Amino acid sequence: MVRLAVALSPELERRLLPDAMEHGHQLVARASSWAELRAGLGEHAPDVVLVGAGAGTFDRALLTACDALGIRVIALADDDRQRAAARSTGLHEVLGSQLGWSELEPVVVGLAAPDAEPPGPSAVRTIAVWGPAGAPGRTTIAVNVAAELAAAGGRVALIDADPYGGATAAALGLLDETPGFAAACRLAGMGALDRAELERLAQPCTTSGAQFDVFTGLIGAARWPELGAERVATAIAAISAQADTVVIDTGFSLERDEELTSDQFAPRRNAATFAALQAADRVIAVGLADPLGLGRLLRGCAELAEHVDPAQIDVLVNRVRPGALGFDAYGQVRSTLHRLGGIERAWLLPQDVRGADAAILRARALRDAAPRSALATAVREYTAERLLGGRGEPGALGDGAPGTRLLDRVRRRAPHYA
């Protein structure tokens, strides 16, 4: 038997409470708002508080009060926006309000994890963003993919695991005095990386009403020995256990020559990149849309395929513009990738100086700084199609010619892309 306190909509009460009573649970408090419920917590001492995830029935103050008294909180969300808002407060037990009591019962009594109903339909849990040398936009893609995933619902963590120096903190306007991911790796090496430490090290970043956690990267490139292979793998696993989706900004180098040195126990600079790639369900390979950038991308993808299943690799070509590749820049990029690399499908992102500059100047994700820009639209469409299984905001790419609909819109807005 579980002692329940509830703050639910009338419809949810009528549907759920009779079944809860039939399962032998005791209703000790019933309130119409989170404030009313919080006021009676000490008097009624429930084991579990069951609330709607809406603003009227759930608030961070209620969660704080329950945490102080050791009371579990389970929220029922009507949609992805409510789910994301509830999870942004730090609440992990968020379920769909459409579930029946038979599905809620194992969670209420503590026999099942709340993630029996995941926040999103995608099977992609860990995403590594890689790209060759030359600043192709790895951090830009990682930051904005994380923001889009967070806005779609679910708990998202962004990790800066670049052993050559972190950039996510600067891109999002976060303090980088202490590298959060390196600290997580040190604790992982000591076996002390628990949930409390992860919450302490993560910096929250809010975007369009949603929130994701950021583990900032190295302050200086000289600190790369802190990112050992085993430590990085353990830290990623620990973060993945607390988040629904993890996005990792990796380094560019895939060299293993350092392992040929006489000291086989010395730290390896690229170990963090290899550990991130091995942990990933999906790898986003980012390259630049110019002759030099495409050459680096093609050679890099061939090398990447030696470490990652090619079926897990998505190729994104950034900064597509006619100046570097002629009149039909999009056609030239697709033709080059197919002819020289056998890459039949790639996602093409337009050069969008105004949108990118707005994001840099405001130190925000594109969906906040320039939500209607061409680059924001392209990233949103890729995320919806490939990482959310078609779920998300309208405008998925769709028709077998990636970027076609986006290109038509870009041409209408800015003829110089034609």
From TrEMBL:
Residue ranges constituting the CobQ/CobB/MinD/ParA nucleotide binding domain according to the UniProt record: 127-323
One GO term under biological process is: negative regulation of cell division
The record ties this protein, via Pfam families, to:
CbiA (PF01656)
Offer an example of a GO molecular function term for this protein.
ATP hydrolysis activity
Keywords of this entry: ATP-binding, Nucleotide-binding
What Gene3D superfamilies has UniProt attached to this entry?
A: P-loop containing nucleotide triphosphate hydrolases (3.40.50.300)
Question: Is Nucleotide-binding among this UniProt entry's keywords?
Answer: yes
Give the residue spans that cross the bilayer: none
Name of the featured protein: Pilus biosynthesis protein CpaE
In the record, what lineage is assigned to the organism producing the protein? Bacteria, Bacillati, Actinomycetota, Actinomycetes, Micrococcales
Cellular-component GO terms for this entry: cytoplasmic side of plasma membrane; cytosol
Task: State if Cell inner membrane is listed as a keyword.
Answer: no
